[in-house]
Amino acid sequence: MKMQKINTSFTSFSDANLEQKAAYILEQMTSNANYASPLPTLAELQTATTTYNLYLTAAAGLDRTQVALKNEARQTLEVILSRLGMYVMNVALGNAAMLTTSGFTLNKPGDVVYIDNPGNVTIANGVTAGEMIVSVTAVNGAKSYQHQIAIEQPTEATEWKSTASSRSKFTYTSLQPGKQYWVRVAAIGSREQIAYSPVATQFAQ
Asked: The domain spanning residue 192 has which CATH number?
């Protein structure tokens, strides 16, 4: 059975929702017998939450300085909440009832997202000699990408040079001007899914 987890990412929360969620987690974790020694401490969470609330109010007028301070305070609060969530999961060991008492949101067991072929590769020369910009359309469900390049026309025995990336676009540098290169991009999904683009080729400029 898959271990139950909680959501430890708060980047999708609106400012107001983050304020409410942090306050709720602090309330639920206070005097919670399931979590005797939380790390970060609840005092740290209280300080980060209070600071964020103050800057959030101050930033309502959209003053650039106040908005920047609010964003910095938000980042600090998100980091503390994420670290606290990891502590909660380490203690609860997948126990859904214990996880629920923390105030964090349980992850929903979602269906597997099957990734599609990345499609044709787009190649463009960079502004500097020896640069080649390779990209594919972002693939729904892809967790990461592998950008692969070869210096000879590919065969089944070709050893591709691979570079892992979180983006579907990658810039090769220090290539030999006038030399032909072959490239392809692999989209990496969950549960070891992998889908390769067709091979494309271009001479470096």
From this structure: 2.60.40.10
CA–CA gap between residue 205 and residue 200 (Å, rounded): 16
Inside any domain, residue 34: yes
* Three-class secondary structure of residue 59 per DSSP: helix
Domain total of the chain: 2
pLDDT at residue 12, as a whole number? 80
Q: Is 178 left (phi over 0), alpha (psi -120 to 50) or beta?
A: left
Structural element, H or E, at residue 146: strand 144-150
Q: Which regions of the chain are under pLDDT 70?
A: 1-3, 109-113
**Parent domain of 177:** 122-203
Pull the structure tokens for residue 75. Answer: 């980042």
Exposed/middle/buried for residue 125 (C-beta within 10 Å: 0-12, 13-18, 19+): middle
The model's pLDDT over 6-58, given as tens digits with 9 standing for 90+, comes to 888 888 888 889 999 999 999 999 999 999 899 999 999 999 999 999 999 98
Alpha-carbon gap, residue 92 to 140, rounded angstroms: 32
Domain boundary among 66, 101, 136: 101
Give the tokens for residue 80.
């503390």
